[in-house]
Design brief:
Blueprint lengths: L8 H27 L2 E2 L2 E2 L4 H16 L7 H5 L4
Antiparallel strand pairs: 1-2
Helix pairs in contact: 1-2
Length: 79
């Protein structure tokens, strides 16, 4: 990739941060719903559900660019 075709650094950073937050909240809510760890303010995961959440977030952040890109990576054209 040449310098002219690379996306701006701010786009890459913002897309990464937004993808990290959205994946954390979506996966966290799904796991909390399954395990019954939802609260009035959202969810609270401890132990194995928290480890599963972090594993899913890491898998999403590493795996999705290999098969087409993460959600905000594509929206910000940071790929």
């Amino acid at each position: 990739m040449t310098e002219a075709t690379r996306p701006a650094t701010w786009r890459v950073v913002i897309a990464f941060i937004l993808d990290l937050f959205i994946s954390f909240f979506i996966f966290g809510f799904i796991i909390a719903s399954i395990t019954g760890d939802t609260t009035e303010g959202g969810f609270e995961l401890n132990g194995l559900p928290a480890i599963i959440l972090f594993a899913l977030v890491i898998a999403y952040m590493v795996g999705m660019p290999r098969i087409g890109g993460r959600i905000f990576q594509r929206l910000f054209k940071a790929i």
